[in-house]
Structure formats: C-alpha cells, structure tokens
Amino acid sequence: MLNNQKKRQSGFTIIEVLIVLAIAGLIMLVVFLAVPALQRNSRNTQRKSDISAILGAVQEYTDNNQGTLPATAASFNAAFTTAQPKLGYYTTAANVTWTLQTTATAPTDPNSLDKVKVVNYAKCNGNAATATGATARSIIVLYDVEGSGGSLVPQCQES
C-alpha cells in the first residue's frame, strides 16, 4: 500500500525565527538606550541628596556656634569632618569648597561634576547665583548635574 499522506515536519520556519530575532533586537535596543539615562538620573539624585546633607552640616555648625558661619575654609573642613554628613557621590571634604564672602557677590559655578561650592552672601536665582537680596547669613551651594549628551547643568540650592 502506498502512503500518499505527507509527513508533517515539526519546527519553525525561517520567517518565524527572523520575527522572533527582530523583536528580541528591538527589546535589547530599548534597554541599551534606557539604562544610561537611568544611571545618570540615579547619580543626579545622589548628588542632590548629598547637597542636602552638606547644607545640614553647615546648619548644624551655625546652630552650635551661636549663628556664626565658619570663618575659614579650614574651620569649614573641620566642621564638615565633625558633622560627618552621609555622602554618597561627593565622598570627601576635598570635593566641597567653602567660600566665605564679605560682600554680596554672585559666585561662579564650579563647572565640574566632582566639585561643590558652598558660598555665603549669595542667593539662588533659578539655577544661578545672584547677589540680589543676599545677607551675610545667606548660604547657597553651587554644583553641576549631568544632562543629556554628557553636558553639565549648573544647579543652585539655598539653605
């Protein structure tokens, strides 16, 4: 007897395999595009958290010293070391500089992701520093965060 029935072979066709590979490729592309942005946002969030801790250390110093600010960078570094703020991105006091100004002046941005500038006698005007309305006890922190494409975005935060 002749067997005229075709044997059905199991498996995937080339078209089905190509469709699955194309979909997997698109998913991988989306993941590789999203991960750097997520990492950048995480680092920027850590920087902002560190700035709050630094401002807290300055506030603690002024509370413990009858409202006076550190007179020199050395006294600021000593107070900073004593307060031991929990920092994640700015790991040492070397990353944080203290500028004690005697007149209202708008300081410049540190222009570095690894540097923070703590300044008195200045106020924030958006993400820039201004001298308008500043007093000797006005304290700001200037720092940069990462923007898209690796650009630096200046930030200003007041106490």
Task: Give me the secondary-structure topology.
Elements: H1 14-64, H2 73-83, E1 96-99, E2 116-120, E3 123-125, E4 128-130, E5 139-146, E6 152-158
Parallel strand pairs: 1-2
Antiparallel strand pairs: 2-5, 3-4, 5-6
Helix pairs in contact: 1-2
Essential attributes:
159 residues, alpha+beta, 6 strands, 19% strand
Summed up:
The chain has 159 residues and is an alpha+beta fold. 39% of the residues lie in helices and 19% in strands. A hairpin with a 2-residue loop joins strand 3 (123-125) and strand 4 (128-130).
Helicity range: 25-40%
Largest sheet: 4 strands, mixed
Helix count, per DSSP? Answer: 2
Separation of the first and last Cα atoms: 95 Å
Class by alpha and beta content: alpha+beta
- Mean pLDDT equals 85
Low-pLDDT residue spans: none
Based on DSSP secondary structure assignment, what is the total number of beta strands?
6
Overall geometry: elongated
- Give the SSE order as H and E letters: HHEEEEEE
Adjacency order of strands in the biggest sheet: 1-2-5-6
Kindly give the count of domains: 1
Percentage of residues in DSSP E strands: 15-25%
- C-alpha-based Rg, rounded: 28 Å
Structural write-up:
By secondary structure, this protein is an alpha+beta fold. The chain has one domain (about 15-159). It is about 40% helix and about 20% strand. The protein has helices spanning about 15-65, 75-85, and strands spanning about 95-100, 115-120, 125, 130, 140-145, 150-159. A hairpin with a 2-residue loop joins strand 3 and strand 4. The longest helix is centred in the N-terminal third of the chain and has 51 residues, at about 15-65.
